[in-house]
Amino acid sequence: MGIKTIDWKENSIKIIDQTLLPGKLEYLSIRDLKTLWSAIRQLKVRGAPVLGAAAGLGVYLGIKDSGAADFRYFFQELEQVIRYLGSARPTARNLFWGLERMKNAARENKSRTIKALKKILFTEALKIIEEDRFACRKIGFYGAKLLKNGDNVLTVCNAGILATIDYGTALGVVYRAKHDGKKIKVFACETRPLLQGARLTTWELKRNGVDVTLLCDNMAAVLMNQGKIDKVITGADRIVCNGDAANKIGSYSLAILCKHHKIPFYIAAPFSTFDLNLKTGKEIIIEERRSSEVTDLFFKKPVAPKGIKVFNPAFDVTPHEFINAIITERGVIRPPFQKNIAILGAKI
Ligand code: MRU
Question: Is 237 noted as a catalytic residue in this protein?
Answer without folding.
Answer: yes
